[in-house]
Amino acid sequence: MKSFKKHIPHYISLFAIFFAGVLGFYLFSYDKSFQIGVAIALAGSYVSWGIIHHVIHKDIYLSVILEYVAVAILGLVMILSLILRG
């Protein structure tokens, strides 16, 4: 529990990034190209957050970076498939 409390500010910022992404999708629901931009920015922000988080805690490895990139790409593909359907 002590370790979790130490990371709370980092997770709050991650939540804020995702909240801003959801808000962007809602506010720009009429513009698919802007939603694509929001999705790409959200994926990039997630990867950046992960790298910064691990650099601060001195446990950054190539495998960690690749994991964040893989999750971001998977999420981006899912979001883009929803935006571009139909």
UniProtKB/TrEMBL annotation:
Keyword set, alphabetical order: Membrane, Transmembrane, Transmembrane helix
Transmembrane feature ranges: 12-28, 34-52, 64-84
Name of protein: Uncharacterized protein
